[in-house]
Design goal:
Layout lengths: L22 E4 L11 H9 L4 E8 L5 E3 L20 H4 L20 H11 L2 E6 L6 H15 L7 E5 L2 H10 L5 E5 L6 H7 L4 E5 L5 H9 L3 E5 L4 H10 L3 E4 L16
Parallel strand pairs: 1-2, 1-9, 2-4, 4-5, 5-6, 6-7, 7-8, 8-9
Antiparallel strand pairs: 2-3
């Protein structure tokens, strides 16, 4: 099924180099497998995805690992804030059993393991910096420094994103060469200036916020326009008709990345 025939706004000049594919798998294949695990990445890749989004935060001893929530309660058998525990303890937790018996024992992955997986396969990675509250700057610095080390001499595409400007500012200071994107769940006052100050290359919004005017505004400012989390075919067609630059989706079994700007029910 091809996108609806919507009028496209006039194209504005944008930087030519944009390495991320149009379709990006959310938290790996975070609905079909335990989110933010290697199992989810492998399943997304099996569905043809070549770009992945995931969340990264810090352990109590400063190790970057994948987890969306501040607490362990939803996706492991444990309770309490994840950031209060050292990596040696976190690495032994079952992060897959909650999703089903087939994934029992799937561990929380260290950032290094995810990066090795995407680099060996030539995949793109959108790392959302997801700090434990109060650790925004420390997390931004640690993630950027880890990525600078891990991506030295590697051409695999990488984008750092966050809802927290403080985390992106710290990442910018630690590794200014790594591209950054501002995440928005609402268009709060002053966000365009913050995106400029952070030298962002993209803005990633809740899909419901994106319309032709916002897409044109972002492109006019030299920013790529991406959306999360697009699971409905009608919304995907609407956004593709606007000329969006990236769609982050859970529906890896419903949207074919090989089809380019096409979606199916």
């Amino acid at each position: 099924m091809t996108p609806e025939a919507l009028p496209r706004p006039p194209a504005e000049p944008l930087p030519a180099a944009w390495p991320l594919p149009l379709w990006i798998a959310h938290r790996g294949a975070g609905r079909l497998a335990p989110e933010n695990t290697l199992a989810a990445f492998r399943l997304g890749a099996a569905h043809g995805y070549r770009a992945f989004e995931c969340d990264v935060k810090l352990s109590a001893d400063g190790q970057p690992f994948l987890l969306h929530d501040t607490r362990l309660d939803r996706t492991t058998p444990e309770r309490g804030p994840a950031g209060d525990r050292p990596w040696a303890e976190l690495s032994r937790l079952d992060a897959g059993g909650w999703h089903g018996r087939a994934y029992a024992g799937e561990p929380l992955p260290h950032l290094d393991a995810i990066v090795r997986f995407v680099q060996r396969n030539g995949y793109a990675l959108n790392l959302e910096i997801k700090p434990t509250p109060g650790l925004e700057q420390a997390t931004g610095t640690a993630v950027a420094e880890a990525c600078r080390r891990l991506y030295r001499g590697c051409a695999a595409p990488l984008l750092l994103s966050s809802f927290r400007p403080e985390a992106l500012q710290a990442a910018q200071a630690a590794a200014p060469e790594i591209p950054r994107a501002l995440l928005l769940d609402r268009l709060w006052p002053g966000w365009p200036g913050v995106a400029r100050a952070l030298a962002c290359v993209a803005v990633v919004t809740d899909y419901a916020l994106m319309d032709a005017a916002l897409r044109a505004q972002l492109h006019a400012q030299g920013l790529r326009a991406l959306c999360y989390t697009v699971n409905d075919p009608a919304e995907a067609r609407r956004l593709l008709g606007l000329g969006i630059d990236g769609l982050i989706t859970d529906a890896v079994d419903r949207f074919s990345p090989q089809a380019g700007p096409q979606v199916f029910d």
